[in-house]
Structures are given as structure tokens and as C-alpha cells.
Amino acid sequence: MSFQDTLEKLCRDVPGARAAWVMSLDGISVAQHLAGGLGEADLEALLVELGSPLKNLRRGLELAQAGLVRALEVQTERGVVVLRMLNEEYFVALILAPGALLGRGRFEIRHHAVELARELG
User: Fold this and answer.
1) What is the pLDDT along the chain (121 residues), one digit of tens a residue?
2) Contact in structure between 90 and 22 (CB atoms under 8 Å)
């Protein structure tokens, strides 16, 4: 299955999913699927900006010998962004509408991350 197919399936499997993205920590977009209901949101810019704190968090946890970052969740009044690391350099992001099934989103992103990581090689 391709990145595009996997991201599309991830959005279909989570009620309230608005988009799914694979990006590098340096802000390079690998693949995306927009499910709709996004309005004027610039999600790519948001994810580029989240890459830097994610890198800093990873460095801080390494210094504290606390292990590797696996996932991060950011909640706002306009929705939730769930990030899951695919490897040292890439992550998948799932953007959810307010009131979406967050637990289902966490489960599905963890499940689909295996396929996405495999695609990265």
C-alpha cells in the first residue's frame, strides 16, 4: 500500500479525521490526505512548526536518558493533532475535529504507523 492509500485509510477509519500527513522533522512533506472540513487552516505550516519542538523534546529526553519520543498530542479549541514517530526522522500526523473519537485516533495512528514506517524503508 502507498503512503497516500494508507493516509486515506487512516482518515476513513477515524470518525472526525480531517487530514493525515507524513513529514520529516525538518518540515519536508512526504505525503498528505485531506479529508475535508478544514476551512482556511494551513496545516502544513502548523506541522512544520511542530517539527522543531518535537526535535527539541527528543533531544531533551535523550539527555535525561528518558527514552525516545513515540507520540505527542496537541489539543486546541479547534481540534487535536496526534503525532506519532515513524523513525528517527519522520512522523505521521492525524488532525481531528473537535469532538472526534480521540481514543480511536490514537489506536489507528499507532496501527497505521507500522505500514507507513515500512514504506519509508
Assistant:
1) 799 999 999 999 999 999 999 999 999 999 999 987 666 568 888 888 888 888 899 889 989 999 989 999 999 998 999 999 999 999 999 999 999 999 999 999 999 999 999 999 8
2) yes
Spatial distance between the Cα atoms of 25 and 90, rounded to a whole number of angstroms: 6
CATH code for position 109 = 3.30.450.30
**Rg for the chain, CA atoms, rounded:** 13
Q: State in Å, rounded, how far the first CA of the chain is from the last one.
A: 13
Q: Structural domain tally of the chain?
A: 1
Displacement of CA 20 from its chain's centroid (Å): 6
b/e code 56-77 from CB counts within 10 Å (16+ = b): eebeeeeeeeeeebeebeeeee
